[in-house]
Amino acid sequence: MAITDWPECERPRERLLAQGAAALSDAELLAIFLRTGVRGMTAVDLARDLIRRFGGLRQLMGAGREAFCSHKGLGEAKYVQLQAVLEMARRHLDEQMARGEACTSPAVVAQYLNVRLRGRPHEVFAVLLLDNQHRLLAYEELARGTIDGAAVYPREVVRAAMQHNAAAVILAHNHPSGVAEPSAADRALTERLRQALALVDIRVLDHLVVGDGDPVSFAERGLL
């Protein structure tokens, strides 16, 4: 049965308009992106199949060009479209951060870092450099490593902060394992960086660890 033959209250597009995007499942959101199915499958059926084959919506959206285009119902046109959507999402979050959202909306920071760091195959250490009103000046990735960790040097963090004349920073890194729980090494590094930045009067507002779920905030845990 085609989606157009479904009851209106069950169609993904109509549900999105009536209830908002958050009410839809991953498969329903992907079906709207796909627009059409393939022979014998509605767009929703195809979306469910793709999510199963890739292992999740995040893995599908993060797939490389070759892997993405090799699946039935996808192709270069869809790949290009998806990359454009992801880049627009990143730029939208950049603009929100630049308007001073970093301090007033921790949820925006978490969203931003999820887009930047979640699903990366190796560990990445990044810094959000903020002005004295906590607006985003720059986002810099200062270290990349293997799944076992990344070498982070306090002098590099201080250099980046001074270069952008930052008044405060938010530290961040991902755990490729998907488990966002801070390690003892994470805590020790945070303290070293906090002390180094304090010498040049730059505050560390938070350190977020990005995994598969919501990022873990050092500030919320009382670890700063």
Secondary structure layout plus pairing:
Elements: H1 12-19, H2 26-34, H3 43-54, H4 57-61, H5 65-69, H6 76-104, H7 106-117, E1 124-130, E2 136-144, H8 154-163, E3 168-174, H9 184-198, E4 203-210, E5 216-217, H10 218-221
Parallel strand pairs: 3-4
Antiparallel strand pairs: 1-2, 1-3, 4-5
Helix pairs in contact: 2-3, 6-7, 8-9
Notable features of this structure?
224 residues; 49% helix; five-stranded mixed beta sheet; 5 strands; alpha+beta; 15% strand
Describe this structure in words.
With 224 residues, this protein is of the alpha+beta class. The protein is built from 10 helices and 5 strands. It has helices at 12-19, 26-34, 43-54, 57-61, 65-69, 76-104, 106-117, 154-163, 184-198, 218-221, and strands at residues 124-130, 136-144, 168-174, 203-210, 216-217. Strands 2-1-3-4-5 form a 5-stranded mixed beta sheet, with helices on both faces. Strand 4 (203-210) and strand 5 form a beta hairpin. Helix 2 (26-34) packs across helix 3 (43-54) and helix 8 packs across helix 9. It is elongated and about 65 Å long.
> What do the pLDDT scores average to?
87
Main pleated sheet: 5 strands, mixed
**Whole-angstrom Rg:** 20 Å
Cα distance spanning the termini = 56 Å
The succession of helices and strands, N to C, reads HHHHHHHEEHEHEEH
Structural class, from secondary structure content? Answer: alpha+beta
Low-confidence stretches: none
Number of helices: 10
Please tell me what the overall shape is.
elongated
Helix content range: 40-55%
User: How are the strands ordered across the major sheet?
Assistant: 2-1-3-4-5
Number of strands: 5
Strand content: 5-15%
